[in-house]
């Protein structure tokens, strides 16, 4: 970390003085190079993380490419503010400059996708970076490093350190020459990062966990809602911060929903990550699998009903994978709102379904957790989706869809799900320092 920060510091003056257009061309070149190796990156991401090759090929790696292309383009289009005070003979304007060495720390669930979501805006704005991928999933970060020189990224601009959170992560957070930290990971780690960085008054962007509700009203189009909610619950083994884990269904359609939802869930195959017919690969680690399984056991002990998956259905794995960390998608019903399964982030292929009666009641229950990242609302009533969306305490609300993202707009959570937002304008503001200049003429 010490050597990486020094290299980044030394490279800052030249990199920050390059024009946005020059930086943009390099980012685009890097995107092209990753795209040329897309298949190799997808295979490596799957092997390292356990996700299906299909998911890495269609989501993780294309999005990493898009992150570079997006910020290569958006950096060319920012404008700063200007105001006039004719009576005083003054013009005010703002100027934005890169901050310096950015510390970037990312988790294991979407390894290259989330790391590049930070590297791209940071260097597009003229910062240099020290990035630390998760120690569980560092392979694609290493592969990307090897493309930097070919893309024309000058030495020292992007430094990647490989190591654990406690050692490498904390050294980065505590380094006096790293004025800003962009972190994606768990709320617990964010608390530690906040404490450790406080003596340095660092600028922090924290993208954390979620306990995301889906609210399904009785006028929802179930033909769209059910497959999308199965996907939002189980995509990437449920290891996405935006995954749905609490499904509130209006009582009139509760039984019909449950029946169809379980039938749809059972269509999802769990197995070898490179099998194209498989939808759910392996979980990240043995410890994580145990943790996720324990939540299901706790729910059962509390009297909830497991409708499919863990402990109910048998999982037929190919002979070579029987000791792997696989788990069937699991649907639990009749869970109490105060249960840990309805309050804590499980981050695995487990979702809870409960009934509700009124709009007022469901808003209160959906907001009744410490997290506030994302929600989905399903209804054909336009007035209602607006009303509910406005009252939900979370940073993102999708109505009648899930995970449709425009990278221009803010991404981030409320409450224990984070501090700050990232996106075209938000990342630009986070990764630059603003100055107000007044000229009297
Ligand atoms: P984690 O907090 O354990 O680790 C995240 C990163 O922080 C890793 O690189 C780790 O090495 C590092 N780290 C750990 N301790 C550290 C310390 N003391 N100082 C500095 N760095 C440290 O999280 P995880 O288990 O890798 O990821 C899963 C979590 O990430 C879930 O809670 C999930 O919701 C969250 N997540 C959030 C988003 C989002 O955008 N909001 C996206 C993906 C994942």
From TrEMBL:
One MF annotation (Gene Ontology) recorded for this entry: aminomuconate-semialdehyde dehydrogenase activity
UniProt keyword annotations, A-Z: Cytoplasm, NAD, Oxidoreductase
Protease keyword on record: no
Localization: Cytoplasm
Active site feature: 207
Chain ranges of the Aldehyde dehydrogenase domain: 1-437
SUPFAM superfamilies per record: ALDH-like
This protein's GO CC annotations: cytoplasm
Magnesium keyword on record: no
Enzyme Commission code(s) on record: 1.2.1.32
Catalytic activity field: 2-aminomuconate 6-semialdehyde + NAD(+) + H2O = (2Z,4E)-2-aminomuconate + NADH + 2 H(+)
Record InterPro entries: Ald_DH/histidinol_DH, Ald_DH_C, Ald_DH_CS_CYS, Ald_DH_CS_GLU, Ald_DH_N, Aldehyde_DH_dom
Biological or metabolic pathway of the protein: Amino-acid degradation; L-kynurenine degradation
Function of the molecule: Catalyzes the NAD-dependent oxidation of 2-aminomuconic semialdehyde of the kynurenine metabolic pathway in L-tryptophan degradation.
Homology family: Belongs to the aldehyde dehydrogenase family.
Name the record gives this protein: 2-aminomuconic semialdehyde dehydrogenase
